[in-house]
Amino acid sequence: MAKLAIKPKAKETGELAKKKLLAARKAAVARMARKKEIEDLKKRDQIIEQYMPYAASIANRVAKSLSLSGEYDDILCGARLGLLEAAKRFNDAQNVDFRTFAYYRIKGAIYDGLRKSGWLPRSVYARLKFEEASNEYLQFMSESGRTTSVEPVNTESEMSNTVNTLASIYVISLDANEDIDVEDTSQEELEKRAEFHQVRTHMREAISSLPPKEKQLIMMYYFQNRTLEEAGEKLGLSKSWVSRLHARALELLFKRIRVLAGKDADGGEITTEKPKEL
Question: Structurally, how many domains does the chain consist of?
Fold first, then answer.
């Protein structure tokens, strides 16, 4: 009887030991996770401190390019937010230079802050949209592996495609904001103005000929002043997929413009209607 009475107690002792062992393991995992979290925070702080001058230099260039030197403090604030976001997302295991990784995110945060401010003059919006859209496109190209740095691309074909795409973005940005007046009435400027109007005409027809989803994205992003994220939500697409769709739409636009320019040179008729909003 004495032996039988001992068995339940031994079983209870074994279960208690297992619970203690499990609790110890959980505590060890928690300590390791906390230690890693602290190390990551220290590393992030070091990155932010190291690259703060880099973010400030980007802010300075953006302020000058948009002629908004008087708003430098707001632009710098956006640059710092972009740097913080880049530091949070950066993973050095991906073997990507942090400057390249952070460059477009810093600029994107600046443009997002300026766009949300809502007080910018209309004349600035066209330049802002051009720089914002160019930044989105170049970031997609960089992260998709088509280009791997913020330095100029190496091959003539890549450079030509990039320049043509940025030119398309420029024309859409101006057209969407109707910032196309030319005060200079010299013959040379009048010819440039006529040439630009012709390019704008081709762009409008090219937009109208896009597939429905690409056309809707272009209209929302450029003509309705939405961000790519907002347009993506409307289309039911993630940020990566809407960036891919944006790049595809721009490529289709340039190809279509070349066709229209060829028809125009042969005397074909080109419509001058502005693309209808969806």
Answer: 2
